[in-house]
Structure formats: structure tokens, C-alpha cells
Backbone:
């Protein structure tokens, strides 16, 4: 019985002690912008967990959006940013996912950019 209680306590402490994102916005809408406009946007977030948050990798749904992740661990309650640079050389609507791989409770987190580029 003591072993069961010990295992349960250990599992419970692992679940409680975790890293977690809290984004200011999970979708950034560029709105309608002109061809060649500045495509750089910044996602702000906080580590609301109680352990350092490490972003291992970031992928996008196309090569037209280039993300830049924090290189250092984000400590509990600390704020950080992910910068996304979208190629605005082509006209038309866009909607792209940015997929974040980390040591957070949910190891995969998706955020999004969207908008319309006019001539």
C-alpha cells in the first residue's frame, strides 16, 4: 500500500510541476497589407508554470514564414517572444500555422498568422 501511495504522490508531483505557455494572442491577423510591407510580427507569451520552459524547435506550414525562437530557457513567470517574418512579396490571402515543440505540459503548441496582401 505504501508503494502505491508513493507512486501516486510522485506522479501527482510531476503533473503539478510543469511548464506552460500563456500567449497574449495565439492568432495574429495582419489585416490587409500592401505587397512588400513589413512582414515581421511578434508573439508574446509567459511561462505560467513552475519550471523552466524550453522551446526545442519551431516549424511552419510553409517556407514563407520564418520563426525565431528564444534560445535560452524561459523561467517561471518570465515573458518571452517568438518573432515570425512572413514573406509579403506575393499577393493574396494567407493563413499559416506556427508549430512549437517544447517541454511544456502539451509538448506541441500551435499558433497562427493570417492576413491579405494587396498590390
Residues:
Amino acid at each position: 500500500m505504501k508503494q502505491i501511495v508513493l507512486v501516486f504522490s510522485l506522479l501527482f508531483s510531476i503533473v503539478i510541476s510543469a511548464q506552460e505557455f500563456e500567449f497574449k494572442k495565439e492568432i495574429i491577423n495582419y489585416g490587409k497589407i500592401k505587397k512588400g510591407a513589413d512582414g515581421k510580427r511578434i508573439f508574446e507569451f509567459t511561462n505560467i508554470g513552475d519550471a523552466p520552459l524550453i522551446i526545442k524547435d519551431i516549424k511552419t506550414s510553409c517556407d514563407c514564414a520564418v520563426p525565431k525562437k528564444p534560445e535560452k530557457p524561459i523561467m517561471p513567470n518570465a515573458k518571452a517572444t517568438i518573432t515570425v517574418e512572413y514573406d509579403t512579396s506575393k499577393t493574396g490571402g494567407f493563413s499559416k500555422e506556427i508549430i512549437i515543440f517544447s517541454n511544456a505540459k502539451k509538448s506541441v503548441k500551435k499558433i497562427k498568422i493570417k492576413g491579405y496582401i494587396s498590390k
Remarks:
- Strands lie at 21-23, 27-34, 40-47, 55-60, 65-68, 79-86, 92-102, 108-118.
- Residues 2-16 form the longest helix (15 residues).
